């Protein structure tokens, strides 16, 4: 019986490794296509040309690399949340952390009066997410909440911060802030 279980685990492990290899190959193919296709198409055979230096290596490659890294970070964050809450549906958006980041970005745009650097938006989003995570941790420790209650507090914080963010955007006359409405909806 025990040997059968070990055999099944080894088989599952081999299957998982094959799946990871297939996904990595797929990621490499999609990355090459992403680096090649755009307003100007530059296929891998052309990547050593002078025009490719700008388009592929200075514009497309950093963007592609950042998308891969951020996607991996989001996947790890989601997996950590799911393991922590023992809930396969748990994710940062469910706990209000994403909305906390959004509120910080909206406040940054409001307070900066139109002179906003992209790095400042990123830093403010990180600070907002950390602040909301700290609030959740405060409730978890001080109020001795179980996982279900903490999820409900996170959902409540997310709804409140989402409402505040939407109110600030709609009541503002700042054009940059109205553009953030598209950012919040996931548009580029």
UniProtKB/TrEMBL annotation:
GO terms for molecular function: transmembrane transporter activity. The keyword DNA damage does not apply. Pfam families: FecCD (PF01032). One of its GO terms (biological process) is cobalamin transport. InterPro entries: ABC_BtuC-like (IPR037294), ABC_transptr_permease_BtuC (IPR000522). One of its GO terms (cellular component) is plasma membrane. This is Vitamin B12 import system permease protein BtuC.
């Amino acid at each position: 019986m025990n040997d059968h279980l070990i055999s099944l685990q080894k088989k599952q492990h081999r299957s998982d490794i094959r799946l990871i290899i297939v996904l990595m190959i797929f990621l490499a193919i999609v990355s090459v296509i992403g680096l090649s296709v755009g307003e100007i198409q530059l296929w891998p055979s052309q990547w050593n040309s002078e025009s490719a230096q700008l388009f592929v290596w200075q514009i497309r490659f950093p963007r592609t690399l950042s998308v891969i890294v951020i996607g991996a970070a989001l996947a790890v964050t989601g997996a950590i949340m799911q393991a922590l809450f023992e809930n396969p549906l748990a994710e940062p958006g469910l706990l209000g952390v994403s909305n906390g980041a959004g509120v910080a970005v909206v406040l940054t745009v409001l307070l900066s009066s139109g002179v906003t650097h992209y790095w400042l938006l990123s830093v403010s989003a990180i600070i907002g997410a950390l602040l909301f995570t700290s609030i959740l941790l405060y409730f978890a420790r001080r109020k001795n909440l179980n996982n279900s209650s903490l999820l409900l507090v996170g959902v409540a914080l997310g709804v409140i911060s989402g409402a505040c963010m939407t109110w600030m955007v709609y009541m503002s006359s700042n054009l940059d802030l109205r553009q953030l409405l598209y950012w919040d909806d996931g548009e580029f």
